[in-house]
Amino acid sequence: MTPVDLTGWNTALDAHNLTPAFINDLTGDPYDHPATARTEIRRANDTIPFIYRTAIADHTEVSSWADRLITTTREQTTGRIVPTIGRHRSLLLLGPTGVGKTHQAYGTLRYLAPTGIRTAWTATSSADLYAALRPRAGVDSESEFRRYAHAPLLLVDDLGAAKSSEWTEEINFRLVNHRYENQLPTIFTSNVLPKELADRVGDRVSSRLIEMCDRVVIQGTDRRRQAAA
Ligand SMILES: Nc1ncnc2c1ncn2[C@@H]1O[C@H](COP(=O)(O)OP(=O)(O)OP(=O)(O)O)[C@@H](O)[C@H]1O
Ligand SMILES: [Mg+2]
Asked: Is Metal-binding given among the entry's keywords (predicted)?
């Protein structure tokens, strides 16, 4: 048991009234709140892409979704040693290029990290997902697919961004349908307009997304261009 690096975590800790001293209190219990939080924070520090490593879910509708996820998880897992993410509604972040969808998505994973909940999240962009699932020698694509389909919490960035083919449509459908049927919380981002969604991902995927997701449209201008100006 070692302390975790809490650089960049003040806002996320403050949001839950937690302190660095609480998180790095090495009690010796591997299942208590601080130990679970340290594991989650360490994973976020190690694997979230560099530019999102201090991201905060500062959009109120996004943090409200995360708050509902926290409440439901605690209710569903009362009495369990470690609260673990179960069934919940998903989140669909829409908006044009550069407004901060991916930032909010990783910000949400970071927002959840100190709460003492085991999230076991998996994150991918849809392009990386297709690359990981492309049939090739030595890789069991079905077991790769299950890694994403069964993840307790999944981030699928840039849904509908790539030019679609029958094969990518089938992957999208199978993934969304599995998450839909099992009510597994998923954070989707897409830079299509709400009215274009069906055109981009097909009727059957978009119908399921509309039912299973809280939809948040992020407004604004391209922050990358703003930063460059
Ligand atoms: N709330 C925020 N506070 C500070 N920086 C932000 C915020 N939101 C986004 N950014 C920064 O703005 C840039 C664009 O954000 P991001 O990559 O999340 O956009 P996006 O909507 O996902 O774009 P795309 O559609 O191209 O994927 C990044 O450099 C990101 O770090
Ligand atoms: Mg993005």
From this structure: no
Of 223, 224, 225, 226, which is best to mutate to test ligand 1, by the most ligand atoms within 8 angstroms of its C-beta? 223
Contact 185, 213 (CB under 8 A): no
3-class SS at 79?
coil
Ligand 1 nearest atom to the CA of residue 59, by list position: 1
Q: Tell me the CATH class for 10-228.
A: alpha beta
| 108 CB near ligand 1 (under 6 Å) | no
146: alpha, beta or left? (left if phi > 0; alpha if psi -120 to 50): alpha
Please give the pLDDT value at position 163.
82
Q: pLDDT tens across 67-91, in order?
A: 999 999 999 988 778 999 999 999 9
